[in-house]
Amino acid sequence: MADRNPGMDLDLEWVSGVRVNTQAVLKRAQQVQGRKVAKKEWQAAWLLKAATCIDLTTLSGDDTPSNVHRLCMKAMQPIRYDLLQSMGMHDKDITTAAVCVYPSRVADAVKSLKAANSCIPVASVATGFPAGQTPLKTRLEEVRMAVEDGATEIDIVINRTLALTGQWAGLYEEIRQFREACGDAHMKTILAVGELGTFTNVYKASLVSMMAGSDFIKTSTGKESVNATYPVAIVMVRAIRDYYRKTDHKVGFKPAGGIRTAQEALVWLVLMKVELGDQWLTPHLFRLGASSLLGDIERQIYHYVTGRYPAYHELPMA
Ligand SMILES: O=C[C@H](O)COP(=O)(O)O
């Protein structure tokens, strides 16, 4: 990954001065959704790009070493080899950006990828995911254990209680401690936007997370009733842009939760391009957190290559 965001001292004046114009955000989100997306070979290229930005995720109570193994194999070969060959992309080392699992499954993922000689990063959710309602000591220990087991990316959840009660200094302090516990592992900070109430809170939580040294800010756990939406993304990427202008540090963005279709993936790429520019269109600064998006991307690429949609058995790993 690129240089990390070191964070900065908490600037409470900046945080408390934040105002978000809701109407302007909604309008911009509509404009982004209404933009024409690429077609034909350009669309296929964008879909491949989207595949390389996916944190391929399984976060289920019934996860086992074998389904984690299967996830890892899919991450290594996200699109069927013959389809890539038809596109002349079979030798481009196309993999997903990472696999993302619960802390207890990190060792399984690391083992599977290592055995297959792959260096795809293993990301783990931590800090009492998804609610974050466990004692700080436990949350910190969870981060350390996931790192010890080989996770090189940690997706922490913020303490919504602190955000909702305006305890920004407390939130900053906790995230700082998570960052320290992560060590060299890159930290993605999940805001759980569906539980933050207002756009202003989302912007403030984004800022505080970046000030505390997050490498990425991420919308959602996928477990809230509202997850990644385009308006909320506009708020977060504007915070990223403002933070970059002020500090010269680029923080990544990860929409996650409920992203299921290739069409949505294309809109997310457009949003990043028009709001933050091409430099954010790489896995270093953009991830799509998703458990069931890749299947549709592969299906659309199949359609592009063959001119028809596949039968279920034709993409058995999707
Ligand atoms: O971080 C990733 C999300 O948990 C995935 O959510 P999803 O299962 O709705 O795709």
UniProtKB/TrEMBL annotation:
GO terms for biological process: carbohydrate catabolic process; deoxyribonucleotide catabolic process; deoxyribose phosphate catabolic process. Its EC number is 4.1.2.4. Keywords: Cytoplasm, Lyase, Nucleus, Schiff base. Its main location: cytoplasm. Transmembrane segments: none annotated. GO terms for molecular function: deoxyribose-phosphate aldolase activity. It catalyses: 2-deoxy-D-ribose 5-phosphate = D-glyceraldehyde 3-phosphate + acetaldehyde. It holds the Pfam family DeoC. It is an enzyme of class 4 (lyase). It is found in: Cytoplasmic granule; Nucleus. The keyword Cytoplasm applies. SMART domains: DeoC. GO terms for cellular component: cytoplasm; nucleus. InterPro entries: Aldolase_TIM, DeoC, DeoC/FbaB/LacD_aldolase. Belongs to the DeoC/FbaB aldolase family. DeoC type 2 subfamily. Catalyzes a reversible aldol reaction between acetaldehyde and D-glyceraldehyde 3-phosphate to generate 2-deoxy-D-ribose 5-phosphate. Participates in stress granule (SG) assembly. May allow ATP production from extracellular deoxyinosine in conditions of energy deprivation. This is Deoxyribose-phosphate aldolase. The lineage of its organism: Eukaryota, Metazoa, Chordata, Craniata, Vertebrata. The gene is dera.
